[in-house]
Specification:
Blueprint (H helix, E strand, L loop, with lengths): L1 H22 L21 E7 L2 E3 L2 E4 L4 E6 L7 E3 L12 E5 L4 E7 L6 E6 L1
Parallel strand pairs: 1-4, 3-8
Antiparallel strand pairs: 1-2, 4-6, 5-7, 7-8
The structure holds copper (II) ion.
Copper (II) ion binds next to loops.
């Protein structure tokens, strides 16, 4: 009987992992069309995905003078807001970019869903 159970477990495992790959299947194929804008700035692009009502990653460490781009991958509207910037409402697929010229830690949240929080650490 043991020999029968193992293959069944293997099939069940494959099904579970198959389901998971559906979940993570939509990798951020965000087109980086920021090329050619400012040649002076370092080419560091810091991308934050808004997905499943969360900022991913929630904490991002960046270099002073670089930009951060948030992209809303949810169907729901989100609005990134901090003491120094406000994206306005972002629909699905829309992005917002902010430049950080000061060193420090900047907390932000979603103006529509206050439980969504994140921070940018500028070094
Ligand atoms: Cu939100």
């Amino acid at each position: 009987m043991r020999k029968v159970i193992l293959p069944i477990l293997a099939v069940a495992g494959a099904l579970i992992f198959g389901g998971c790959s559906l979940y993570g299947g939509s990798q951020n194929s965000a087109p980086s069309n920021s090329a050619g804008s400012a040649a002076v700035s370092p080419s560091t692009s810091n991308a934050i995905s808004i997905q499943n009502f969360a900022f991913n990653p929630a904490a991002t460490t960046i270099k002073k003078g670089t930009t951060v781009t948030w992209t809303n991958n949810d169907s729901a509207l989100h609005q990134i807001k901090s003491a120094t910037f406000n994206s306005g409402q972002l629909g699905k697929g829309q992005s917002f970019t902010a430049t950080f010229n000061d060193v420090g830690t900047f907390d932000y949240s979603c103006a529509i869903h206050p439980s969504m929080t994140g921070k940018i650490i500028v070094e």
